Amino acid sequence: MFPGNIAGMYNDLHCQMISFTCDYAEGAHPLILKALCDTNMEQLPGYGNDLYCLRAKEKIRRACGCPEADIHFLVGGTQTNATVIAALLRNYEGVLAAETGHIGVHEAGAVEYTGHKVLPLPQHQGKIRAEELKAWLKTYYADANHEHMVFPGMVYISFSTEYGTIYSRAELEAIHGVCREYGLPLFIDGARLGYGLASLQSDLDLPALASLCDVFYIGGTKVGALCGEAVVFPRGNAPAHFMTTVKQHGALLAKGRLLGIQFDTLFTDDLYGKISRHAIDMAEKLKEILHRKGIPFFLESPTNQQFVILSNQEIERLKPLVGFDFWEAFDADHTVVRFATSWATPQENLDKLAALL
Amino acid sequence: MFPGNIAGMYNDLHCQMISFTCDYAEGAHPLILKALCDTNMEQLPGYGNDLYCLRAKEKIRRACGCPEADIHFLVGGTQTNATVIAALLRNYEGVLAAETGHIGVHEAGAVEYTGHKVLPLPQHQGKIRAEELKAWLKTYYADANHEHMVFPGMVYISFSTEYGTIYSRAELEAIHGVCREYGLPLFIDGARLGYGLASLQSDLDLPALASLCDVFYIGGTKVGALCGEAVVFPRGNAPAHFMTTVKQHGALLAKGRLLGIQFDTLFTDDLYGKISRHAIDMAEKLKEILHRKGIPFFLESPTNQQFVILSNQEIERLKPLVGFDFWEAFDADHTVVRFATSWATPQENLDKLAALL
Amino acid sequence: MFPGNIAGMYNDLHCQMISFTCDYAEGAHPLILKALCDTNMEQLPGYGNDLYCLRAKEKIRRACGCPEADIHFLVGGTQTNATVIAALLRNYEGVLAAETGHIGVHEAGAVEYTGHKVLPLPQHQGKIRAEELKAWLKTYYADANHEHMVFPGMVYISFSTEYGTIYSRAELEAIHGVCREYGLPLFIDGARLGYGLASLQSDLDLPALASLCDVFYIGGTKVGALCGEAVVFPRGNAPAHFMTTVKQHGALLAKGRLLGIQFDTLFTDDLYGKISRHAIDMAEKLKEILHRKGIPFFLESPTNQQFVILSNQEIERLKPLVGFDFWEAFDADHTVVRFATSWATPQENLDKLAALL
Amino acid sequence: MFPGNIAGMYNDLHCQMISFTCDYAEGAHPLILKALCDTNMEQLPGYGNDLYCLRAKEKIRRACGCPEADIHFLVGGTQTNATVIAALLRNYEGVLAAETGHIGVHEAGAVEYTGHKVLPLPQHQGKIRAEELKAWLKTYYADANHEHMVFPGMVYISFSTEYGTIYSRAELEAIHGVCREYGLPLFIDGARLGYGLASLQSDLDLPALASLCDVFYIGGTKVGALCGEAVVFPRGNAPAHFMTTVKQHGALLAKGRLLGIQFDTLFTDDLYGKISRHAIDMAEKLKEILHRKGIPFFLESPTNQQFVILSNQEIERLKPLVGFDFWEAFDADHTVVRFATSWATPQENLDKLAALL
Fold first, then answer.
1. Chain D positions in Cβ-Cβ contact with residue C19 (cut-off 8 Å)
2. What is the mean pLDDT of each run of 10 residues along chain B (357 residues)?
3. Whose C-alpha in C283, D147, D257, D294 is 20 to 30 A from the C-alpha of B153?
4. Which domain holds residue A288?
5. Test mutation, C81, C111, C143, C150, chain A, max A CBs within 10 A
6. Contact indicator for C216, C193 with CB cutoff of 8 Å
């Protein structure tokens, strides 16, 4: 009943070709693995009460310029989004997000599963606009029946967005301004925060971003860690007993050290910034290659995700040679595909790609 | 505003003393770390579609003698319990569990958060009894108003239990028999499955256990892994689209490789069994030491958790010297404490403990 | 601290003018009140086990031509929608509905509160189209990432819709056909079912409608009852223990007689049909008046709700004279308003309205 | 396929015998029916914005001595319990209740369905004790792991309880005192509030009760109304947007008048008090009869529910002659049964019962 040879059975699945499919294809930055190995046999308290978690939190507070910040380490993005959103909303409230926002599309209804509606806002290359947010809120409160509708309880944006775009400081200030006007917390999904901030077009850094929202997270999974997202409440403004909420969501790691050690490493000597900038360097080179080859762009992304339009014929040709991600149909004969760089992308892979195209 | 010296600030928190506080104090078995390092720069598909996950699943199927098993890797125990229970129950059903069951006590209401009641059964050193389960069900269905009550939808037991005890084959058969009679799936929380099966008193092995329940999980977090629980539906009986349910619960790891590589290692050359037996060897020696020192036992546990009664005075003396866990007050002057061994416990720590007591 | 005269204090609130604001402005049809009075002191079992409930169910089965139908009486529309949808969906599924569907807009997130996403479909005067439903489903299943998205689990339509429109037999057959093709139950919100079926343009009757869906309800609240909706599973296809689900949702009335007596009356001598036709007669006359006065229609509704466009100036003039409902802004100077007739509308009110316009 | 004669088919179901089964066997007090008939054709605003709702609220404020009270009318008890509890608890909190509390036993898990655990307290004839509540809270907060447990977020008691017992003023003050000490809202389920306050043993009235809790409801369903419970937040302390929460729970009646008119009638000329006292008069006579006949009492109830122990043989004899409710097995040969009086019980029924026993 079992096949004879386990060892050999999946060799064909092992991806030998180069891949630009996503930014979570490799394991962790080697310094993270080294730190995990170095500390492995230390006996530490569980649930995030170890010194590495404490140290990582202190380093993140410094990096964000937020000495009062409450910081919690969770394991993954969907989990973090659902946990933070459920903790901040009251029962009768929903969360406003771009209609392309990850929480509204690709999280299997995790937010709704906690009882809250995702209220869609118009999107522009993955971004929302302050004036449209304000218009939505004005219309909502002007509706005589709005008490029969889901109240807007917070605003969710991603930085960088699902389309690789970023908000400028002015744009973020405007959105944050509307949020304050209406008493709505602003939550930034930073699954790709490193790449967003490292973008050549970004005029924001961690302290600026922290000052312009009410909660955000620093994505580890896609930026050099095995797993882990660091949730930051910049002004000590975590909801009461947030740790219990994290536990209730199944998001509290027994061996919290796994997250603490990783973020301690990422925030030592600015490793997080350095590897994010590497991904952006590689993305700029990737864009140059794609432009040079005359491949049309679906949109201009200033971060590590590049969306281009390929003919379906070209896609068939490339498929066995290089990994990339199918995004959406463009027309009958063309498809939008994504090429992503990451902290781990070597120059060599770009050279190979250039040769293939 | 920030203290001057991060490097030194938490040194005092670093636990220099030996600890028997829990079985998740260290990192991972060195072979796991080695495997993570060896495979680190391989580019692999996400979300558990990598070859290591596939290989680990195949090895687990063999170890369980279940060629048709559906296997899913989740990150932690509370998360796994809530996800499996919510996936199996219909809306109007609850889960029966010992009143000391982990899901009813120490998971911050994670099961209720998914909308289901935990229905308490009498416990005997952490175990339920088939005849009491049957009596409960008979009483329930005999109640003319039972349609106004939460229906029993499944049975949850832990192996080993929260008190370190285990079910014999006969006991498990009897419970499973009642479950089948009433059409209730039986779910075994195996956060400490390795230690339960390795117990000198156990007359069960993985295939026997798999044949006597409808779903169980093989705990990694407490048995040598950094994190991870392998959920096994032994007869290909996973609920439809269980992967989407896992995603909805925020329990689907983007870098599924982290779990696949760990379980692949644990199920190579029976590492899981070997390290579990080591913990039991250490526990037997620990029991001998405690008996020799005349320390009264709260109950007789055949696994890696030992519960003894210490005077509060003795506790104060020992606290700065050795780590252990406070369980519950025994009387005004005495407390039940737990000493746990694990895959990582060295003989040396036992010797030190013997000297201290 | 209390005002001196309760009796007089709210007299000004008492609406003396005629109202076309909604179809739930009056109490109940006099025959219903009579039946409540006639049976008042009979001692009856609770929770829907009384003879009036049983008799009403039997009469509804006959009216629908569904001898096997499971029928449950609930109290109101939002409650019924949330209860039925939660009972039919599995955890990882959502409900497809027109973007104007009541469940997605005006039920305060009641469906999401049960953990399920409302998946919006394009609407055309409140209706969905079979071909667009099919296209949505095709796109969904063609998406490589659809397992990270909410599964479509059922389809919700309203009859008549929130804009007073109705589906033709051919349209309903086409939608039902797509539903069967994809294994999706079709649920018809019949809060205004009587008015929909009584429409001069309707080519459907109760048996036809029942045969073209999997569950629907016969609205009482808006069609002559004090409260109450009769949920019909036409082919005995109610989910297991649906009564317990109703109880869990707080929707099981202790004095179920209140609902049984009302529906027994409504389905005696076709009272439901008669009073629905009266409302349609009145609506046709209302349309004639509005047309005659040259008031532009927002859309052509064949049922009891009429949507017209008034200048804001005209609205100010009419407001103190006649009740109507504000629907949505049309442009800076005009507003869409709703005039509704009902089972209770007298000819006299139409005459008064004609004089006022 | 249909039986030939609907009219006659259920005649045998019609209960001709006298019944003491429950306090919701009849319809409504005749004055309520009269008021419904008198106001029937008035056109009124929906959703509780009509003058009868406003007037009823004002009368209730006066009766409670709470000029600032927020008052909301809901339809039934389970619904009210789930809505109020979900509105007051934060996500990580549960509700403390006697283990016999209605919310924990006979509401089909409605509270858990909203995501919250019911935390059981010891019960004494249906009542909790202040000192046991305090001990529970002390133990909870003393537990080093309490952050991994469900937080106590409010206390629920019923008045009168499920066993017909009532709290004295001193007992209620003590419980309320513990609640204030720990910052927990106290919620009183008043499904049978009228009968509790009218008890000859009660030293509480509405204003006293209102001053000793944070929210309670005045039960209508079991005290003379067709349906309806009036939720009172005595000091204007309703949670924000409670009306939207009510809507979200499917508990907002479109024809709110149905509730307003009933409570307006019940609180005119103290009808609520008068009919409650009638039920108590009848209960006292019932007790006398039962005592005279030498029937052993299960417990001494001072309200309208009487629990006695009958031999199973006697039960068989009485079953076809008089209605009563089976409560629980007493021993192999005896059963605890409940006889209930209500606002509607005539002296004649007591005489008949006396003759039968």
1. 43
2. 42 64 97 98 97 98 98 98 98 98 97 98 98 98 95 98 98 98 98 98 98 98 98 98 98 98 98 98 98 95 97 95 93 96 97 94
3. D147
4. 6-22+273-356
5. C150
6. yes
